[in-house]
Amino acid sequence: MNLLNELPPPNPNIKSWCANTQTAPDTYSETQVYPKISIIMPSYNQGAFIEETIRSILLQNYPVLELIIMDGGSTDETVDILKKYDKWIHFWVSKKDNGQSDAMNKGWRKATGDVIAFINSDDYYEPDVLARVGSFFSATKGKNMLLGKTRVIESDGTEIKIKTPCNRYSHLAVLGGRHAMPNNPVGYFYSKEIQEEVGDFDTNDHYSMDYRFLLKAFKSADHLTVAKAIFGNYRYDDHTKTFNNNQEKGGQVRLKLQRMAMEESAVFGEKYLHYLQKSHELTNRKFALPRRFGIQKMLAPRLDKQLENIDKRLLALEVKPSV
């Protein structure tokens, strides 16, 4: 099916691949059984970008796709765009909710797929990603998580950098920027069993709910696999809900995430918690080093060496907890 010819013409402001190209339909074998992929999109007032996000999903031409869009009652052009693509969206609603976590919970509970993914309504996938994902999950058993690289972009699509995510729990737990966490859901897919085991996102947490989810998911998964390919594009702008370690607010958020990591790491035992706490303390000391008089340049390498040694101890103690 040449979906590109069936979809309505895109907004001319869309400059990425999904404006005028698609994954070739014959990419998918008629004899292969593909897992159903449910992609859930929380949305609120992202009318400038959401059409690009939708097209980057639909134009994968994936044969067993379920697209669910939970919009929080947008007042911009979002609803018009959802109506424009209504025929190809499995389910969408636009009504006031209790924030992004609430929308994500409602979305995943509607999902009937074997594989779950979330995507923010201002991000978009790379071409052929779902073909890779479908082939991977059709060939694996158990609770799996597939992580890809993400391209961090400006609001206009200009590339900032490409990030390769970690696939070890302790690398996720230490924070501090030494190991790149899967910093955006556009870069990972996972078995629905993981979501069912982890449960809902915290509706009282509007900024770091994905971090606690990742900590739980990394513990739940039987296998964590990092693909070589770039999976998606993560739009970073002034409205992005993330943190910057160099800002005062970022330091406060980092402390909050460290508390989460300590809570979720209790299953690994007291010795693990001891070293993780030490890692957090050294990380915070490193970020607090003043830049003047070359103090940071002089002392940071010593702290980095200590942190590397702690990383090795944590990896040795990282034994998957029994269920």
Structure report:
With 323 residues, the protein is α/β, with parallel strands linked by helices. It folds into 2 domains: 3-235, Alpha-Beta Complex (Spore Coat Polysaccharide Biosynthesis Protein SpsA, Chain A); 248-317. It is built from 11 helices and 9 strands. The protein has helices at residues 3-6, 50-58, 78-84, 100-110, 129-138, 169-174, 192-198, 209-220, 248-264, 270-288, 295-317; strands spanning 37-43, 65-71, 91-94, 115-118, 124-125, 144-153, 159-163, 188-191, 223-235. Strands 1, 2, 3, 4, 5, 6, 7, 8 and 9 form a 9-stranded mixed beta sheet that branches. Strand 6 (144-153) and strand 7 (159-163) form a beta hairpin. Helix 8 runs parallel beside helix 9. Residues 242-247 have low confidence and may be disordered.
Task: Write the SSE topology.
Blueprint: H1 3-6, E1 37-43, H2 50-58, E2 65-71, H3 78-84, E3 91-94, H4 100-110, E4 115-118, E5 124-125, H5 129-138, E6 144-153, E7 159-163, H6 169-174, E8 188-191, H7 192-198, H8 209-220, E9 223-235, H9 248-264, H10 270-288, H11 295-317
Helix pairs in contact: 7-8, 8-9, 9-10, 10-11
